[in-house]
Amino acid sequence: MNNDFFNLVNFWQAIRIYGWWQVGIELLIIGLFVYSIMRFLRGTRGERMIKGTGFLLVVLYLIVRLIGSELHLERINFLYGKFLFFASFAAVVVFQPEIRRALMRLGETRFFRSFSIQLNEDIEALVESALFLSRRKIGALIAIEREVGLGGIAESGTRINADLSAAMLNTIFWPNSPLHDLGVIVSQGRIMYAGVQFPLAESGDLERELGSRHRAAVGMSQESDAVVLVVSEQTGDISIADRGQLLRRLTGDQLRTILSELLGGKQQPKKVMKAAAVL
Fold this sequence. Notes:
Layout: H1 2-18, H2 20-41, H3 45-70, H4 74-94, H5 96-108, H6 119-135, E1 140-144, H7 151-154, E2 158-163, H8 166-173, E3 183-187, E4 190-196, H9 212-223, E5 227-231, E6 238-242, E7 245-247, H10 252-264, H11 269-277
Parallel strand pairs: 1-3
Antiparallel strand pairs: 1-5, 2-4, 3-4, 5-6, 6-7
Helix pairs in contact: 3-4, 6-8, 6-10, 10-11
Protein backbone atom coordinates (compact mmCIF):
# COMPACT_ATOMS: atom_id res chain seq x y z
CA MET A 1 0.00 0.00 0.00
CA ASN A 2 2.99 2.31 0.51
CA ASN A 3 3.80 2.19 -3.19
CA ASP A 4 0.21 3.02 -4.05
CA PHE A 5 0.26 5.92 -1.61
CA PHE A 6 3.46 7.36 -3.10
CA ASN A 7 2.10 6.92 -6.61
CA LEU A 8 -1.00 8.90 -5.61
CA VAL A 9 1.13 11.61 -4.05
CA ASN A 10 3.28 11.82 -7.18
CA PHE A 11 0.15 12.08 -9.29
CA TRP A 12 -1.18 15.06 -7.34
CA GLN A 13 2.24 16.70 -7.40
CA ALA A 14 2.37 16.32 -11.17
CA ILE A 15 -1.03 17.98 -11.45
CA ARG A 16 0.16 20.89 -9.32
CA ILE A 17 3.28 21.27 -11.47
CA TYR A 18 1.52 21.14 -14.84
CA GLY A 19 -1.59 22.97 -13.74
CA TRP A 20 -5.25 21.95 -13.75
CA TRP A 21 -5.92 23.47 -17.15
CA GLN A 22 -3.12 21.45 -18.84
CA VAL A 23 -4.30 18.20 -17.29
CA GLY A 24 -7.89 19.03 -18.21
CA ILE A 25 -6.95 19.68 -21.84
CA GLU A 26 -4.99 16.42 -22.03
CA LEU A 27 -7.88 14.43 -20.56
CA LEU A 28 -10.31 16.15 -22.93
CA ILE A 29 -8.16 15.25 -25.95
CA ILE A 30 -7.90 11.64 -24.80
CA GLY A 31 -11.65 11.50 -24.21
CA LEU A 32 -12.42 12.94 -27.65
CA PHE A 33 -10.03 10.45 -29.25
CA VAL A 34 -11.69 7.49 -27.54
CA TYR A 35 -15.17 8.85 -28.34
CA SER A 36 -14.30 9.29 -32.03
CA ILE A 37 -13.06 5.70 -32.23
CA MET A 38 -16.19 4.32 -30.57
CA ARG A 39 -18.42 6.47 -32.79
CA PHE A 40 -16.59 5.29 -35.89
CA LEU A 41 -16.93 1.63 -34.84
CA ARG A 42 -20.58 1.97 -33.77
CA GLY A 43 -22.71 -0.82 -35.18
CA THR A 44 -19.74 -2.91 -36.37
CA ARG A 45 -18.06 -6.04 -35.09
CA GLY A 46 -15.14 -3.85 -34.05
CA GLU A 47 -17.29 -2.05 -31.47
CA ARG A 48 -18.06 -5.24 -29.56
CA MET A 49 -14.47 -6.41 -29.91
CA ILE A 50 -12.91 -3.21 -28.64
CA LYS A 51 -15.26 -3.12 -25.65
CA GLY A 52 -14.29 -6.65 -24.68
CA THR A 53 -10.59 -5.94 -25.22
CA GLY A 54 -10.77 -2.74 -23.20
CA PHE A 55 -12.49 -4.49 -20.31
CA LEU A 56 -9.84 -7.25 -20.35
CA LEU A 57 -6.98 -4.74 -20.35
CA VAL A 58 -8.48 -2.78 -17.45
CA VAL A 59 -8.89 -5.94 -15.38
CA LEU A 60 -5.35 -7.08 -16.16
CA TYR A 61 -3.97 -3.66 -15.33
CA LEU A 62 -5.67 -3.61 -11.94
CA ILE A 63 -4.45 -7.13 -11.15
CA VAL A 64 -0.88 -6.51 -12.25
CA ARG A 65 -0.44 -3.01 -10.85
CA LEU A 66 -2.24 -3.44 -7.54
CA ILE A 67 -1.62 -7.07 -6.66
CA GLY A 68 1.63 -7.57 -8.60
CA SER A 69 3.35 -4.48 -7.21
CA GLU A 70 2.15 -5.24 -3.69
CA LEU A 71 3.49 -8.81 -3.74
CA HIS A 72 6.58 -7.88 -5.79
CA LEU A 73 5.68 -10.20 -8.66
CA GLU A 74 8.35 -8.97 -11.07
CA ARG A 75 7.80 -11.82 -13.52
CA ILE A 76 4.11 -11.00 -13.77
CA ASN A 77 4.98 -7.37 -14.50
CA PHE A 78 7.48 -8.48 -17.13
CA LEU A 79 4.98 -10.79 -18.82
CA TYR A 80 2.32 -8.08 -18.73
CA GLY A 81 4.63 -5.69 -20.58
CA LYS A 82 5.33 -8.33 -23.23
CA PHE A 83 1.61 -9.06 -23.49
CA LEU A 84 0.85 -5.42 -24.28
CA PHE A 85 3.63 -5.39 -26.88
CA PHE A 86 2.27 -8.39 -28.76
CA ALA A 87 -1.34 -7.29 -28.25
CA SER A 88 -0.63 -4.14 -30.24
CA PHE A 89 0.34 -6.27 -33.24
CA ALA A 90 -2.67 -8.52 -32.74
CA ALA A 91 -4.95 -5.46 -32.74
CA VAL A 92 -3.70 -4.48 -36.20
CA VAL A 93 -4.67 -7.92 -37.51
CA VAL A 94 -8.01 -8.12 -35.69
CA PHE A 95 -9.13 -4.61 -36.61
CA GLN A 96 -7.76 -4.75 -40.16
CA PRO A 97 -11.20 -4.18 -41.81
CA GLU A 98 -11.93 -1.17 -39.57
CA ILE A 99 -8.44 0.28 -40.15
CA ARG A 100 -8.82 -0.15 -43.90
CA ARG A 101 -12.22 1.55 -43.77
CA ALA A 102 -10.81 4.46 -41.74
CA LEU A 103 -7.94 5.02 -44.18
CA MET A 104 -10.37 4.85 -47.09
CA ARG A 105 -12.61 7.48 -45.51
CA LEU A 106 -9.64 9.68 -44.64
CA GLY A 107 -8.29 9.54 -48.17
CA GLU A 108 -11.55 10.00 -50.03
CA THR A 109 -13.64 12.35 -47.89
CA ARG A 110 -14.61 15.53 -49.68
CA PHE A 111 -14.17 18.45 -47.33
CA PHE A 112 -16.01 20.83 -49.60
CA ARG A 113 -19.09 19.25 -51.16
CA SER A 114 -21.39 21.43 -53.20
CA PHE A 115 -25.13 20.93 -53.08
CA SER A 116 -26.40 19.80 -56.45
CA ILE A 117 -29.25 21.87 -57.85
CA GLN A 118 -30.42 18.74 -59.68
CA LEU A 119 -30.86 16.76 -56.48
CA ASN A 120 -34.64 16.61 -56.86
CA GLU A 121 -34.34 15.32 -60.42
CA ASP A 122 -31.87 12.66 -59.29
CA ILE A 123 -34.19 11.54 -56.50
CA GLU A 124 -37.13 11.38 -58.89
CA ALA A 125 -35.07 9.20 -61.23
CA LEU A 126 -34.21 6.85 -58.36
CA VAL A 127 -37.81 6.67 -57.15
CA GLU A 128 -39.18 6.13 -60.66
CA SER A 129 -36.72 3.33 -61.31
CA ALA A 130 -37.33 1.69 -57.92
CA LEU A 131 -41.10 1.64 -58.50
CA PHE A 132 -40.69 0.30 -62.04
CA LEU A 133 -38.41 -2.52 -60.87
CA SER A 134 -40.53 -3.21 -57.79
CA ARG A 135 -43.73 -3.73 -59.81
CA ARG A 136 -41.93 -6.28 -62.00
CA LYS A 137 -40.00 -7.87 -59.12
CA ILE A 138 -36.63 -7.12 -60.67
CA GLY A 139 -33.78 -7.00 -58.16
CA ALA A 140 -31.71 -3.82 -57.87
CA LEU A 141 -28.87 -2.52 -55.71
CA ILE A 142 -27.85 1.15 -55.89
CA ALA A 143 -25.35 2.98 -53.67
CA ILE A 144 -25.67 6.79 -53.67
CA GLU A 145 -22.37 8.35 -52.70
CA ARG A 146 -22.28 11.07 -50.07
CA GLU A 147 -19.16 12.42 -48.32
CA VAL A 148 -17.02 9.29 -48.58
CA GLY A 149 -15.84 8.41 -52.08
CA LEU A 150 -16.46 4.86 -53.23
CA GLY A 151 -13.65 4.65 -55.76
CA GLY A 152 -11.81 1.92 -53.85
CA ILE A 153 -14.85 -0.35 -53.71
CA ALA A 154 -15.83 0.42 -57.32
CA GLU A 155 -12.59 -0.96 -58.72
CA SER A 156 -14.23 -4.37 -59.14
CA GLY A 157 -16.97 -2.95 -61.39
CA THR A 158 -17.40 -1.53 -64.87
CA ARG A 159 -17.08 2.21 -65.38
CA ILE A 160 -20.24 3.71 -66.89
CA ASN A 161 -20.08 7.50 -66.27
CA ALA A 162 -23.56 8.16 -67.63
CA ASP A 163 -26.26 10.64 -66.66
CA LEU A 164 -28.54 9.37 -63.92
CA SER A 165 -31.92 8.40 -65.31
CA ALA A 166 -34.60 5.85 -64.56
CA ALA A 167 -34.32 4.40 -68.06
CA MET A 168 -30.58 3.80 -67.65
CA LEU A 169 -31.02 2.13 -64.27
CA ASN A 170 -33.84 -0.05 -65.59
CA THR A 171 -31.68 -1.11 -68.51
CA ILE A 172 -28.78 -2.05 -66.23
CA PHE A 173 -30.90 -4.15 -63.89
CA TRP A 174 -33.06 -5.75 -66.58
CA PRO A 175 -32.80 -9.57 -66.28
CA ASN A 176 -30.02 -11.23 -68.28
CA SER A 177 -28.24 -7.94 -68.98
CA PRO A 178 -24.46 -8.24 -68.42
CA LEU A 179 -24.43 -5.99 -65.32
CA HIS A 180 -27.80 -6.73 -63.71
CA ASP A 181 -26.60 -9.03 -60.94
CA LEU A 182 -24.40 -6.73 -58.81
CA GLY A 183 -24.46 -3.13 -57.57
CA VAL A 184 -24.49 0.33 -59.14
CA ILE A 185 -22.70 3.37 -57.73
CA VAL A 186 -24.19 6.83 -58.23
CA SER A 187 -21.99 9.86 -57.63
CA GLN A 188 -22.88 13.54 -58.10
CA GLY A 189 -25.86 12.83 -60.32
CA ARG A 190 -24.09 10.30 -62.54
CA ILE A 191 -24.08 6.52 -62.76
CA MET A 192 -20.35 6.00 -62.33
CA TYR A 193 -20.02 2.22 -62.00
CA ALA A 194 -22.12 -0.91 -62.51
CA GLY A 195 -21.47 -4.55 -61.77
CA VAL A 196 -19.76 -3.66 -58.47
CA GLN A 197 -19.35 -6.27 -55.75
CA PHE A 198 -20.46 -4.62 -52.49
CA PRO A 199 -19.04 -5.82 -49.15
CA LEU A 200 -21.46 -8.18 -47.39
CA ALA A 201 -22.74 -7.67 -43.86
CA GLU A 202 -22.55 -10.53 -41.39
CA SER A 203 -25.51 -12.88 -41.73
CA GLY A 204 -26.32 -12.51 -38.01
CA ASP A 205 -27.01 -8.79 -38.50
CA LEU A 206 -30.07 -9.40 -40.70
CA GLU A 207 -33.23 -11.44 -40.71
CA ARG A 208 -32.84 -14.90 -42.20
CA GLU A 209 -35.36 -14.25 -44.95
CA LEU A 210 -33.17 -11.55 -46.48
CA GLY A 211 -30.77 -12.53 -49.23
CA SER A 212 -27.43 -11.43 -50.58
CA ARG A 213 -28.69 -8.11 -52.02
CA HIS A 214 -29.85 -6.90 -48.62
CA ARG A 215 -26.63 -8.15 -46.98
CA ALA A 216 -24.67 -6.23 -49.61
CA ALA A 217 -26.78 -3.09 -49.03
CA VAL A 218 -26.20 -3.16 -45.26
CA GLY A 219 -22.53 -4.07 -45.73
CA MET A 220 -21.96 -1.10 -48.03
CA SER A 221 -23.71 1.24 -45.60
CA GLN A 222 -21.41 -0.06 -42.83
CA GLU A 223 -18.26 0.37 -44.92
CA SER A 224 -19.13 3.91 -46.01
CA ASP A 225 -21.68 6.67 -45.49
CA ALA A 226 -23.45 5.85 -48.75
CA VAL A 227 -27.24 5.58 -48.90
CA VAL A 228 -28.05 2.21 -50.47
CA LEU A 229 -31.32 1.55 -52.30
CA VAL A 230 -32.29 -2.11 -52.73
CA VAL A 231 -35.23 -3.75 -54.50
CA SER A 232 -36.03 -7.36 -53.63
CA GLU A 233 -36.26 -9.80 -56.51
CA GLN A 234 -38.50 -12.16 -54.52
CA THR A 235 -41.06 -9.72 -53.08
CA GLY A 236 -40.49 -6.46 -54.93
CA ASP A 237 -40.06 -4.66 -51.58
CA ILE A 238 -38.13 -1.38 -51.66
CA SER A 239 -35.64 -0.80 -48.84
CA ILE A 240 -33.02 1.75 -47.80
CA ALA A 241 -29.79 0.95 -45.92
CA ASP A 242 -28.05 3.75 -44.06
CA ARG A 243 -25.22 3.39 -41.54
CA GLY A 244 -25.91 -0.29 -40.97
CA GLN A 245 -29.69 0.11 -40.54
CA LEU A 246 -32.17 -1.36 -43.01
CA LEU A 247 -35.56 0.26 -43.54
CA ARG A 248 -37.90 -2.07 -45.45
CA ARG A 249 -41.17 -2.06 -47.40
CA LEU A 250 -41.16 1.59 -48.43
CA THR A 251 -43.76 3.22 -50.64
CA GLY A 252 -42.79 5.65 -53.37
CA ASP A 253 -43.62 8.69 -51.23
CA GLN A 254 -41.71 7.33 -48.26
CA LEU A 255 -38.71 6.58 -50.44
CA ARG A 256 -38.78 10.08 -51.92
CA THR A 257 -38.97 11.70 -48.47
CA ILE A 258 -36.16 9.61 -47.00
CA LEU A 259 -33.84 10.15 -49.96
CA SER A 260 -34.51 13.91 -49.87
CA GLU A 261 -33.63 14.10 -46.19
CA LEU A 262 -30.62 11.78 -46.28
CA LEU A 263 -29.09 13.24 -49.42
CA GLY A 264 -30.21 16.83 -48.91
CA GLY A 265 -29.07 17.12 -45.30
CA LYS A 266 -32.37 18.43 -43.94
CA GLN A 267 -32.25 16.02 -41.02
CA GLN A 268 -29.74 13.85 -39.25
CA PRO A 269 -29.76 10.29 -40.64
CA LYS A 270 -30.66 8.71 -37.30
CA LYS A 271 -33.72 10.92 -36.93
CA VAL A 272 -34.80 10.15 -40.47
CA MET A 273 -34.50 6.39 -39.99
CA LYS A 274 -36.37 6.53 -36.69
CA ALA A 275 -39.17 8.65 -38.11
CA ALA A 276 -39.55 6.45 -41.18
CA ALA A 277 -39.77 3.31 -39.06
CA VAL A 278 -43.10 4.59 -37.76
CA LEU A 279 -44.54 4.97 -41.25
